[in-house]
Write a structure and sequence with these properties.
Elements lengths: L3 H19 L3 E2 L6 E2 L1 H29 L12 H4 L4 H20 L4 H26 L4 H8 L1 H27 L11
Antiparallel strand pairs: 1-2
Helix pairs in contact: 1-2, 2-4, 2-5, 2-7, 4-5, 5-6, 5-7
Length: about 190
């Protein structure tokens, strides 16, 4: 039998790996690509909640910062984090916290999970757009039309998918007693 601490670390590492894998699904755009990262971040937050979803996201970012090519297009390093797209990566943290805390405070339904993921997507986009404006030295309009507007439609689709699938998976994992370490999943 695995210790509870080891089990938690394995779940966190597994979800960090899933984020890194889905980050490689990329549609290139001029400044910021559309990736599967945000879908994976939403799944982690929905399934694991704010605490373990945040740990997962931090591990993912630390792996990328350490040079493991887990960011979009197999990139890594502090240059990515402090570059034009870095605000979106850093914005995953408040996005995950927002998703997880919202879900923790309401009745866990598909609609609440979808709403939470839309909220998290908006938090990430706002954070990333502000970062993009200053790092790339864009005007506010350029930043909004490069870092926010192109991602709204796809972001909503990914948020709906993450909310729906996350709700389904979390319920199944809870029924199988595989999320026993999470208070909110009981």
């Amino acid at each position: 039998m695995l210790s509870n601490k080891l089990y938690k670390m394995m779940v966190i590492a597994l979800f960090a790996a899933i984020i890194g894998i889905l980050a490689q699904i990329t549609i290139p755009l001029p400044f910021v690509p559309i990736t599967g990262q945000t879908l994976a971040i939403g799944l982690a937050a929905t399934i694991l909640g704010p605490k373990y979803g945040t740990y997962t996201t931090l591990l993912y970012i630390l792996l990328g910062a350490a040079g493991v090519p887990v960011f979009a297009a197999m990139t890594a390093g502090f240059g990515v984090i402090f570059g034009p797209t870095g605000g979106f990566i850093i914005g995953f943290i408040p996005g995950v916290i927002g998703i997880g805390f919202y879900i923790e405070k309401v009745r866990f339904t598909v609609l609440h999970a979808i709403f939470a993921n839309i909220l998290g997507m908006l938090i990430t986009l706002i954070f990333g757009t502000v970062w993009l404006k200053f790092i790339a030295q864009l005007t506010w309009m350029e930043a909004i039309f490069s870092g926010f507007v192109p991602f709204l439609f796809v972001g909503i689709i990914k948020a709906v998918l993450a909310g729906w699938a996350g709700h389904l998976v979390r319920n199944r994992l809870t029924e199988a007693n595989l999320l026993r370490f999470m208070k909110q999943a009981v």
